[in-house]
Amino acid sequence: MPNLITASGPGDLFTLRNIGNLVPACGSADRSVGAAIEYAVEVLGIRLITVCGHSGCGAMKALASPSDPADLGPASALSDWLGYAASSRERWLAGDPDSDSVERLCHVNIREQLDNLLTYPTVRTKVAAGQLRLAGLYFDIDGAEVFFARRPDRRQLPLSINRPIETSMTALR
Ligand SMILES: [Zn+2]
User: Fold this and answer.
1) Phi/psi at 11 (nearest 5 deg)?
2) Which residues have beta carbons under 5 A from ligand 1 (an ion)?
3) What are 85-94's pLDDT values in tens digits?
């Protein structure tokens, strides 16, 4: 419930929800997420895009399972969709082998989607011009805490999710 965890009201957020909080890279077969991004950025003129993941994510659990994450059955819409998270899984597997938790995959996946946002020319252009910011949110359901993650700058990729925020959009502005 994005409005609840960010203490925002009706109309404050333009929200797109999907399985695994995924942003297929520009040029992917799925165009629906890109269409929403372009509409929000170009028409609504939003100034901040947040990718919000959460603890205990079923999509990330499926992705983290030892079997092929896409092996959910022939021509499954779900397996096709989770295929867009394959790069998150690769990034997760290439990371700290001592920390193979699904929660780390949730974090890695947020970072991957922030990078995918930058594959959209309109996003890249506005970020470079300082007219748009990208940030990650991680909602820890058990602790009822929201963690804020922001890329330190436009080029550096390290992204830490370790700072709880007040559940207020003012913290993001
Ligand atoms: Zn989820």
Assistant:
1) 85, -10
2) 57, 59
3) 999 999 998 8
